[in-house]
Amino acid sequence: MNTDIPSLRQRWLGAKLAELRAAAGIPSLAIAADKCKRSTASLSRIENGVVGIPPRDVPPILDAYGVTDPNVRDKLMIVATEIQQERRGWWVEHGDALAPSYVDLIRLESTATEIRTYEAYLMPGLLQTEAYARTFVSAMQGLSSATELGEFVAVRTTRKTILRRQEPVTLRALISEAALRHPIGGPETFRDQVEYLRECATWPNVTLQILPFTSQPHPGMSGAFTVLRLPSLDVAHVETMNTDAYIEDEHSVEQYLRAFDHLCDLALTPDKSDSFLREIAVTL
């Protein structure tokens, strides 16, 4: 992965600065650049998310645009700081093996304070055993060699460290019963996966619920989704076959949060979910 590829937050920050410039009634980049004492080309690259901006350079731009709201200023400073941090993450070591959209997910996970994820047909990526991940990835990712497969699985495994670090992320996971009726990898691999889910559910930062089959329509029928809550912003993530889609609009993210809460209401309690998992494991 080329570290020059703009991250989601870098693109978001650029778009936000462009929005604030327009709101300030500054019609052109040339005029804005003069006010900010920057070159037009530099400001253009920032607004287009092509380059990041050091946190120290954010206040002068906001001053030039007359932005005084402390909440806005603080939020943009946090995002600029996070952008600097994400360029030093462990994922940089994996070269060109990862798609930029997948790197965005890893970057967001690394700084998230809470992750809410609903899975319709698979185990959540952060709760997969290595054997389960290897079976799924080899079938779905189209990797051409054992080396590529090994690297991808290693990345998937390393992602999970956010759950066990000194200040772990809070994970709320919802899994559809359909995912538990599809024993990927065979009985032994899947039994180990189910027992691993039960183990993870005992961790204080993890809440796991199972959504049983129901005749009642619900928002989870449209597919899996994840909401990542960060110090700077909330982002909804939807994975497709060959890329990842990210939703940053506050109203749209709120819809995903409401959908997640509704699914939680329909799901089994954590205790009953554990009993359900235990029954699944016995049948394998």
Describe the structure.
This protein is an alpha/beta fold. Strand 4 and strand 5 (234-239) form a beta hairpin. A six-stranded mixed beta sheet has the order 3-2-1-4-5-6, sandwiched between helices. The protein has helices at 8-23, 29-36, 40-47, 58-64, 70-86, 100-111, 130-140, 146-159, 177-180, 187-200, 250-266, 270-283, and strands at residues 114-119, 170-176, 206-211, 225-229, 234-239, 244-247. The model has no long low-confidence stretch (mean pLDDT 89).
- DSSP strand (E) fraction? 5-15%
Write down the overall geometry: elongated
Unreliable spans are: none
Structural class: alpha/beta
Average of pLDDT = 89
Strand order of the largest sheet: 3-2-1-4-5-6
Keywords:
alpha/beta; 6-stranded mixed sheet; 284 residues; 12 helices
What are the SSEs and their pairings?
Layout: H1 8-23, H2 29-36, H3 40-47, H4 58-64, H5 70-86, H6 100-111, E1 114-119, H7 130-140, H8 146-159, E2 170-176, H9 177-180, H10 187-200, E3 206-211, E4 225-229, E5 234-239, E6 244-247, H11 250-266, H12 270-283
Parallel strand pairs: 1-2, 2-3
Antiparallel strand pairs: 1-4, 4-5, 5-6
